[in-house]
Each structure stands twice: as structure tokens, then as C-alpha cells.
Design goal:
two-stranded antiparallel ribbon, Helicase_assoc, Helicase associated domain-containing protein
């Protein structure tokens, strides 16, 4: 979830371009739009804490 937090803090929005790759401080790359799409499609299997963390980032579908 650090990748989403980093992106939203930097860009000020929750909409991510389809091909966007987020670079983390440790050097790893994450296809953020794919990660967010996976979280959204699996939201019925996420814990309450995970959903709350995503909702706190401003992702309406997690609320």
C-alpha cells in the first residue's frame, strides 16, 4: 500500500494512469493501476483494516 500512499501524496489524486509504474524508495517498481484494480476486484476478500486503509487514501470504492 506504500505505493498508493506515495502516489496520492505526490500527485494529489487517486486516479492512476493505466500504464503508470510507481518507483518505491527501495528500488522496486509497482504497476500501480494494476495493483489498485486487483484490490478493487478482490475487495470482498480484504480485511476491514485493509479496506479502511484504502478508504483513508480516498478510494471511494473501499468505503
Amino acid at each position: 500500500m506504500n505505493e498508493a500512499t506515495q502516489y496520492i501524496a505526490r500527485e494529489g489524486k487517486t486516479v492512476v494512469g493505466r500504464q503508470h509504474v510507481e518507483q518505491l524508495p527501495d528500488g522496486t517498481s509497482v504497476r500501480l493501476s494494476v495493483w489498485l484494480s486487483n484490490q478493487k476486484s478482490r475487495r470482498d476478500r480484504l480485511s476491514e483494516q485493509q479496506l479502511a486503509a484504502l478508504a483513508n487514501l480516498g478510494l471511494e470504492w473501499a468505503a
